[in-house]
Amino acid sequence: MSEKINFLIIEETDYKFLYELLLQRKKIVNISHKKMPTYEEHVKFIESEPYSKWYIIQIDDKKIGSIYLTKENEIGIHFFTQYEENERFQNVIKEFFLKEPREKFFMNVSPKNEQYIDLTKKLGFHLVQHTYERDEREIF
Known about the structure:
5-stranded mixed beta sheet; Aminopeptidase; globular; alpha+beta
């Protein structure tokens, strides 16, 4: 797979694209929200600049997903389903390492997302913690 990978800075014209990407996301990968935000809530989130870096992933002039880096150097990556391939995931992450060099990177992956767990391990990541959540609305 020899694809030209570009990282495009998010612009207002990308908000709809990012929302469509969020709508298509599989439930097993969600770790940051339980219910789907409205489009207006999503725009508000984007405009709050929640990440230190946030890019659209472009392959051969086609927008296929997004990747972000939190202020704690956590990488989040999402592809439209039809573009989600193991080799592509690894190539995009490797290019991202070159674009945004850091001493350390982290990836938060849902424990149900076995594909991404395997891929992050292949990229040299290792497990550093388990995080548990207690949602009072779901207890008892």
